Structure formats: C-alpha cells, structure tokens
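Weekly structure sync, notes
Attendees: PL, DS, HV (note-taker this week)

Item 1: CRM domain-containing protein
DS walked through the input record. Source organism listed as Linum trigynum. Sequence as pasted into the shared doc:
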Amino acid sequence: MQCHSSTTLFSFFLPRPPTSPFISSSSSNPKSFTNCSKSSNHNNPRSILPSPDSHSHPNAATTRIPTPPWVKGPLRLQPHELANLSNNPSKPRKAQESAEEKADKALTAKESGVRGKKAMSKIVRSIETLPGNQQQSPVVVDSSSFSLGSSDSDDAKKKLPWVREEKVVRYRLKKDKVVTQAELVLDQELLERLRAEAATMRIWVKVKKLGVTQRVVDEIKSAWESNELAMAKIGLPLCRNMDRAREIVELKTGGLVVWTWKDSLVVYRGCNYEVTKNSGISNMVGDDIYGIPGEDLSLFQREGDRLLEGLGPRFVDWWMPKPLPVDADLLPEVVPGYMPPSRRWPPYGRPQLKDTELTSLRKLARILPTHFVLGRNRRLQGLAFAILKLWQNSNIAKIAIKWGVPNTDNEQMANELKRLTGGVLLLRNKFFIILYRGKDYLPSEVATLVSERETEIRRCHLDEESSRKKAADSVHIVVDPSLNSSKTGTLYEFWDIQNKFGGLVKGKKENELQLEAEKANLERELRIQERKLFILEMKIENSMRELTKLNSEWVPAENDADREILTDEERECFRKIAQKLRSSLVLGRRGVFDGVVEGLYQHWKHREVVKVITMQRTFTQVIYTAKSLEAESGGILVSVEKLSKGHAIILYRGKNYRRPQKFHSENLLTKREALQRSILMQRIGSLKFFAHQRRQAITNMRSELEQLQKSEERNGISKYVNQ
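Item 1 (cont.): predicted structure, written out as tokens:
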C-alpha cells in the first residue's frame, strides 16, 4: 500500500516513460520498477525514489524533465538526482531560525514589564543584599573619572555624556489609619456585623452645606427608632474632611460611626440607647466642642487655640482641620462705645503697602489657621472688636465665609469690616476675607500712652499761653502817634481801616454772601465750559482738514448722457428677477469704493441683475448711493426697494455690457481710505453734537450770570436808598 501511494505521487511529477524511444527496456517494465522500489525502501520506508546505489551502473534508466522555453535541448536526470518532496522536515527552516533568535534574545532583549529600569534595579538590589556578596568588596571602576589628556584640568574631569546620576526617589508616606471610637469601644464580632449591615443600606440622611444641623440630628434619631443604624451622606464642604465629619456626627448625635465609604457615614446608636423626644445638640457638653487643646493635639493646634482663646464661642461645624475658629454670628451685633482704633504714622513715611509686601503677606496668610467664620453681612461691631483684640497678637485676621447661608455678600462684609477696623484688605473672594492691621496701627496700650502724652503737651501749651498773656497785660506801652510822620504799614492804619469799613463787612446779609458765592461758582464753571468748547472746536477743525484731504482724492464719475432706456415692462421683469435672487452685495459703512464696483462686475459676470443691500436710514442717502453706484459702474438703475431691514438697490448691467479689463477705479477711494473717511465723518458729527451742547450750556450760564448781576444792582440801590 505504501509503495502504491509513492508511485502514484512520483508519477504525477514525471512524464510517461514508454512514449520516449530513448528509454531502455529495463525501465519499461512496471514490475521491475516496483521490485526495485521495494528493495530500496526497505531501510527508509518514507522515501519514494530508489537509492542511488541501485542505479549507479551506466545502463540505469533516465528521466526527461520539463524545461523552460529558453532551453533548447531536453534535460535528462537519473531517478536518484530528482528532488524528494515527501521527505519534509519536522520544522521549517525559518521556524528553526526564529527559535534560535528568541533563545538569544531571552538574555539581552528588553521586554515591557520584565526587563525595565525598575525591575533591573530590584534585581541588582536583591543580588547586592545576598549574604555572599556582603563580605566581598569589589572594585568599582567609575567611568565618570575617565579623562582624555591631563587629569589636572577641570575640563577633563567632566562626566561623559552616557554617565547618569542616580535619581533619588522619595515615595509618599502612607497616612496612618486613624483609630475610631467604635473600634476602641465595640467588640470585633459586633463591629463586623454592623459593617456588613451598613454596606447594604440604601436610605440615608442628606447633610447639606450648612453642616450637621438640628434637622439632621433629628432625622438620624428618628431613623434610630426603627433601626440601630442610620446612614448620613455628607455634602460639600464637610465631605472634604471625613475625619472631621465623623467627629462632628459622633459629637452631636452621641452615636458611634462604624462604617465610612467615600462621602457616607453609618452611625450606630449604641447598646444602651433610649429613645428620648427632647434629645438634641443642647445635651452635648465637653471640651471638644470649644476646641480646648488636649494631649492629642499638635503644637500648631495648641498655639491656634491659645491665640483664639477668649475671642468668642467656637464654630463646631468647621469642615477643615483644627483649631476650631470663632463663630462670628454668635458675637454681639452692637458694642456700646465702640470706636475705630487710632492710627499714627511717622512723618515722611508711607502707610501704603508695596506689591512685594502685599504678595508676602498673602503667602503668609495662606498657612495661617482660620480665625473667624462669618455668615452675616451687617452689624459686625462684635466681630470688629474681636479682630482688634486678635491684632494685638497677630498681624493678619483670616475670616472664612459660611457655606449655604442665603444672601451672603462678601463685598459688603469686607467694606463693613474695613470701615469698623480701618485695616487693609489683602484678599476677598467667596471663600475668605483676609485683613491686615496696617503699618499705622497702634495697639491699645501704645495708643493710650500717645493720647496721654498729647494731652500733657497741650496742657503745657495752654499754660504757656496764659502766662504770656498775663505778662503782656502787666506791661503797658504808650506809643505817641505824633512822633511818626506817617501811619502807612503801622497798626494805627489797620485800626483806622477797621473803624471806617468794618461796619460794611459786618453789615452784609446772608443773601448777599450766597449771591457772591453763586456768582463765583458760575464764573468758574463758565470758564471751564468755554475751555472745553475751544478744545472741541480745535478737534473739529483738525478732523475737517483730514476729511478734506481724503475727499480731494475721490473724484465722483458723471452719468453717461447716452444711456440705454428701459421700458416699464423690462423694469418690472428685472425687479422680479432681483427679488428672487439669493445672492446680494452688502454695502457697509465704507460706502461706495473701488471694492464695491469690483463686486458689481463679479456679479454681472454670471447674471444680468445685481441686488445691493444698504443699511442707510434716510431715503435721501439711499438715493444718493444708488445714483453714485449707477455712475461708477456704468449700469442702469432699475429700482430701489424697501426691505424689513434696510433698502435694496437693483442695478442692470445693460444690453451692450462688456467685462472691463481693469476692475479698480482710479477715481475712487481704497478700502482703507474709505474706512478712514467714514470714521472721520462719524467723529465730526459727534464732536459737533457735543459742541452744540457746550454752546447751549454757556448761553444758559451767561443768562444766569446776568440775572445775578441785576439782583446785586437792585440790592445795592435798595441799600443806598435805605441809608
């Protein structure tokens, strides 16, 4: 069976031997070939062809092999010289080569996650820590010390480019787990059971921006009536500090937090819980409410509590780390006898802050604890008094704004505190208000000393003045006026003037003084208005000069006398065609310039009629624009239509229209010049309007001034008649 299949496979590749006259009779017998195959396949059963030893004699049969077209003679080979196609190796050659390459790469190749820098550094570290390697002291050759040339030069000691320094990686320390009160009090089995039940709860109490209020406490306690666990979902801003949220919930409810997940807390009511109707926040007392420093507080917290001690009650629902700030809403609204602090600054000084000082103070305020929490806009005298007390120990007062309080205005809060304290506002936003006491701030003790010293100096001045007056009264100096030939520049001249004209000055009435003051004010205002009118007229003159220069460059074209005449039917037809057109040419504030004419020619390239839309308000301006377009383009004005916004100017190119060789018109303005002309015209119009207002105001002032002068004349005449 094996021989038959081999022969069949071999006969597929070879031609029929009996047909060739050159094949000997020994090969023509199929039985002899079969016997030969059997004898040769005794040792190698998978081979198809006979072994070369059996056909080594010269009379062995030859086989004719097919040849390509460019080979002229036939190709004849012995059977043992043919290729053995059935003897395939177990693996292809390429597969063997790839397997060898993989075996070589296994030691040198870099693979992702296997031979990276971190993995290799771990391998090296583990090899170095082996017991056998610790005793040895291998000599390490530093390639960075290799240098070319003399070793004394500094350039030769530089590190080579391929030498890298080892990077020091500082890993972030994991935060220590805080041991909760539930883990200290409850048994482990009970705690695990409660946590398993808490993980399946889906009903919770929402804690909003105001924090753990009395409403939240009542809802938690109402949930404890039917279940020993109650879930609370913490919202902003308390969810940013879940440790503080757990403390507040345990403090206000009296329960134990047994399970925490993201922004949710599950509170256990306790083993000895009794349902009471009048149980709330008021039943809770303890040092933790007021933030009194204890043994477990850090130095920062203890110093913060010492700084805030005595300023007022603390804010229990504080969402940031301790110390707890003072609740400014619980401070008194009005403090009797409160006055802003006195401020003094040495002469030739500058109380204002520089930019660098302001920046440094803001950086310092960032790391400081929050001193007050505020949710009220007005009536902040109690807070201002507490800030002044704080400023004796700290330069900066940091005030946080409560979350969730309606109608809070940080700007109004900051202005009220600045007015009451006189401090410098460093920062104000919707979260914080930071006040600096200022360079000219005086503490209360220093201010008291300064006021006492000023009172003493004033008393000394008064004593000096009184003693001087007594000495002047005791000495009488008699001056004889006859000794002097003239009184000019002497005290006697002054006394004479006072005796003569002093009565006139004292006799003036209040109305006369008011008239004089009003007259002086009007004259001053009149001079100001005349000065402003002069400036406006100068501006108008300059603008008119520039506009005249631009208008000299624009030479409008004249209408052609020999124009085509359209009948009424043609005009109506072109008008309807233009109304149906979607494409149009929009005329802007520049008016008619060379770009508009070029756009008309581009439209007339594809259609006979063009529609120009203008936003000019007055109809006379629209007609002037239509006629100028007709003259500049050489077309025929069909009609002017009123649109919902603006007007549409319809132009027909004409029956004898030819596309011009040059699109730009030399007699028109460019796009930039047209914009400049439009701006100048607008500016001149506005300046003329304001100049008209100034003239009208000046006319009114002059009329009022004339009336005042007439009233003065009347008063003078009446006074003269009375005298």
